[in-house]
Amino acid sequence: MTAFNTLDHASVSGKRVLVRVDLNVPMENGVVSDTTRIDRILPTLREISDKGGKVVLLAHFGRPKGVDPTQSLKPVAAEVALRLGRPVAFAAECTGPVAKAAVDAMKNGDVLCLENTRFHPEEEKNDPAFVAALAANGDIYVNDAFSAAHRAHASTEGLARVLPAYAGRTMQAEIEALSKALETPEHPVLAVVGGAKVSSKLELLGNLVKKVDILVIGGGMANTFLAAQGKAVGKSLCEHDLLDTARSVLATAKASGCEIVLPVDAVVASEFKAHAPSRTVSVDQVGEADMMLDIGAASVKTVAAKLATAKTLVWNGPFGAFELEPFDAGTNAVAREAAHLTKAGKLLSVAGGGDTVSALNHAGVADDFTYVSTAGGAFLEWLEGKPLPGVDALRVRKG
Ligand code: AMP
Question: Which CATH number fits domain 7-171: 3.40.50.1260, 3.40.1190.20, 3.40.47.10, 1.10.10.10?
Fold first, then answer.
């Protein structure tokens, strides 16, 4: 694995530490409705503060077009203070005299949150003058926002080029878990790719078939693959214009020695709603009015048997319409099997992206996986094999 400097290598005492974090949390009526992202950064904040560093938080929030008080980080900073159990000061600017005065007033161990970096269009342009203005308030830079690392922005990438740069504890854990899963994994590696559509996961499928030993395809996207094999899919979600694409994924898999596992049976209903009357049929017996909304028990058994042979699991996307009971059963069953194998020390399991975290939470097993990434876009781009600028900028440069 490429070397990264982490907090183990940083001397933070008395230093102004610019810490890029993910505070892009969901809000309802001005109140943070899910604190998962805040909770993930607490170890890094505590560690720097306990070691006598001045913690200066940098983050974006929403997609403001210029300064927009409705997208201020102020209420989020208040929630960070609550979760951290320590005061968190707030500065209504992220650069300039207001930010400087707030940073100058800090004592060792203090925590300060600067205003939304995206109030400045220069943030997303990675503008060198804006990078310099941010850097003026820091001695070192710590990036703990893996979820923003697919963007080459001033606060996610530019700062790492101009200040001594370190991975925060969450970033470090994420990089280590993802490396173990796809870069230096123990084989066989099994990937589960589910979810709604093939079209949103083409690059991901293209990358995975070359890297993993077994690719299990589930969810709505499996219907497109079944149709590509000439099977009737009734009224199921299916991208009929992508049958050739699906065939070419199958051909690439074959050429790469990657085994593809498709559902052998499905739970079908004639309505897309919770508790719609349903029955399980073979994928060869899907009727004209049927919608395949989940994998059936025989498919669960097949996937479980494959999982038992794997050493590493990478999972993105549910096996069915898991938000609607009883079409969550297939996802729940496979998730519980993966959790069981992980707890028994037989499997390293990494999951993330889109609805996967909520699907695993729904199955009650998110804590039993080796690592669950809450980074949506960055996790997917990593699965697609794309470089992540925010991570690359942290790599130790030689010479
Ligand atoms: P994605 O964001 O691509 O991972 O897709 C997740 C969505 O796919 C969830 O909202 C599921 O309800 C939906 N989904 C999964 N399987 C099916 C299916 N067989 N038919 C319709 N929707 C599905």
Answer: 3.40.50.1260
Q: Residue 188: what pLDDT?
A: 98
Prediction pTM value:
0.91
Integer Cα distance of 172 and 142 in angstroms = 11
Q: Judging by beta carbons within 10 Å of its beta carbon (0-12, 13-18, 19+), is residue 259 exposed, middle or buried?
A: middle
pLDDT of residue 1: 46
- The rounded Å distance from CA 257 to ligand 1 centre is 28
**Residue 276 contacts residue 292 (beta carbons within 8 Å):** no
- Residue 318 Cβ contacting ligand 1 at under 6 Å: yes
80 pocket-lining for ligand 1 (C-beta < 6 Å): no
The yes-or-no answer on residue 354 being catalytic is yes
323 CB within 6 A, ligand 1: yes
Peptide bond into 69 cis (omega under 30): no
C-beta neighbour count of 326 within 10 angstroms = 16
Ligand 1 centroid from CA 297, angstroms: 18
- The domain 185-383: what is its CATH number? 3.40.50.1260
Residues 357-379 have a mean pLDDT of 93
Which atom of ligand 1 is closest in space to residue 201's alpha carbon?
Answer: 3
Q: pLDDT tens across 37-76, in order?
A: 999 999 999 999 999 999 999 999 999 999 999 999 999 9
How confident is the model over 125-150, as pLDDT tens digits?
A: 999 999 999 999 999 999 999 999 99
**Best CA proximity match to 112, nearest among 124, 120, 100, 102:** 102
Which residues have CB under 8 Å from 225's CB, separation 6+?
Answer: 198, 217, 246, 249, 250, 260, 262
Residue 398: predicted pLDDT: 52
Distance (Å, rounded) from C-alpha 158 to C-alpha 199? Answer: 32
